[in-house]
Amino acid sequence: MLTRSYLFAGLRSGGIVIATLAMNLAVPLIAQAHFLWVVDANQSADGKVHVYFSEEAAPDNPALLEKILGAKLWEANLHDDAVKVSPLKFEKGENSLEATFSPKSTNAGVFLDYGVMSKGGAEPYLLRYCGRSQTIANRKGGKVIGDAAVLPLEVVAERSGDGFLLRTFWQGQPAEGIEVTVDGGDLSASKEGVSNAQGELALGTLANGLYSIRVKKVLEEPGKLGDKEYKSIRIYSTTSLLIKPPAEVTQPAVSKALPELPRGITSFGGAVVGDVVYVYGGHAGGAHHYAKEDQSRELLALNVKQPSEWKVVGEGPERTGLAMVAVGNDLYRMGGFIADNGKEEKEVLKSTSDFARWDAAIKQWIELPALPEPRSSLDAAVIGKTIYVVGGWNLNGGGKEAQWHETAWKCDVSANPPVWQPIANPPFLRRALSLAEHQGKLYVIGGMKNQGGPTTEVAIYDPATNSWSSGPALPGEGMEGFGNSSFAINQHLFVSVMSGKVYKLSADGSQWDQVYQLEKPRFFHRMLPINQHQLVFVGGASMEAGKAKTTEVFDIK
């Protein structure tokens, strides 16, 4: 803001400077304008939500807080499939309105009809404020709240190439002609512009820091607030944008070169018992066509302490799209499909309800009580002695006849006999997903939806309450979640995706941070822990190189 001494100096400079003074006098009029800003608990130093009535997302004159006590504060979890806002109670603090987040909230927002204004003989107008918070670190950003009742005018940032892009929305739709102003961060002057026909405005590069973004829209709509009439509505919407440095991506050191698989396979079962990695079944043929002769029936084993070669230690039925887990020293396989056709024949794919335990002593699969429904393209995980199966479908001749499963099941293999029992139905229909146990809960990651294609969405099942909730979506586009593999090791949950990126769930469970990059990207593979500090990546395929025989081992730093 201009100082008094600076203005007086201008007045002494004569006629030419009068024009300069007129230009500068306009600055305080803008600078003295106040807007509502919300800084959420993930952005503030004290872990609280703060609402400021200020020129930017920072404290100003505390006396002004009295003018905004009628504001409506809200919170939301942007990791939810459908974002819903909830009211958030606040108290008047020393220099802000203060609130405390609910445990799963990620963002906050504010709404206030400030009052009917009339200045300088202008027709009266309703002054409306709204705003939200946003943080961008490893993610691309760009997810909208999309609730016109609390945020009719919304501006959201996202990474775009080496810079950032702002997207403006009115009533949930991209909005053209929206005035945008950006301050804060390392900017020495405001960045201003107007959104294009797609509702977008390129910002270029921005350094890490907190930015104050505001947008404006005028509606020529008369109305009444209380007993005061107005002729139009002026809406100012803000976004407090925190740009954080992405987590450092470390290239892991290959700890050893392990033997290749005898042939490249996808959609197989994998598990580890002691020092031995096992894989069973899978598909060795070309993409998009299945035949019985291309299905594996072998149980392969590799001792990572003496990794001379993969050995065939047993056989069973041909299966693809199955799950396999280890419980103690025992292997269990579930589901999968059989291709009941030859290479030159029309596909006849049938899901199975297999459930079997590998008896290493007699080198045979021992049949156990079958799954309640035929199921393939599923995954399984273990908590204690209980196996859980989630996802998949029932193929009964081909993909068009597939029934997507609405159910999920558990089986305590220590029981005699073991019995499959239902758990709460998942709030999704997905296949080609991964399932992992982490801190006593089950994480269902990515996959293909029955409608909408591949997804990066994450769902969490809590056995203690037999209930489902939403988790943080994987970064990137939907294909990143297709055919992924996940596992928890040493209290950390990792997931390996199609692009070769390996992500770790943050300590607070709010986001995925990239920690590794595979030398050979793959999907429909298996990522398995061979001890408390190493992960092995087996099989799979990539769009570019096809099926992978290589086996990569990485050290967890």
Note the topology:
Blueprint: H1 4-11, H2 15-31, E1 35-39, E2 49-54, E3 72-76, E4 85-87, E5 91-92, E6 97-99, E7 107-117, E8 125-136, E9 153-160, E10 163-170, E11 173-174, E12 179-184, E13 191-194, E14 200-204, E15 209-219, E16 223-225, E17 228-230, E18 232-243, E19 269-273, E20 276-280, E21 298-303, E22 311-315, E23 323-327, E24 330-334, E25 337-339, E26 349-351, E27 355-359, E28 364-367, E29 379-383, E30 386-390, E31 393-394, E32 396-397, E33 403-404, E34 409-412, E35 420-422, E36 430-431, E37 434-438, E38 441-449, E39 453-462, E40 467-471, E41 485-489, E42 492-496, E43 501-505, E44 512-517, E45 526-529, E46 534-538, E47 541-542, E48 546-547, E49 551-555
Parallel strand pairs: 8-18
Antiparallel strand pairs: 1-2, 2-6, 3-4, 3-7, 5-6, 7-8, 9-10, 10-11, 10-14, 12-13, 12-15, 15-18, 16-17, 19-20, 20-21, 21-22, 23-24, 24-27, 25-26, 26-32, 27-28, 29-30, 30-34, 31-33, 34-35, 36-38, 37-38, 38-39, 39-40, 41-42, 42-43, 43-44, 45-46, 46-49, 47-48
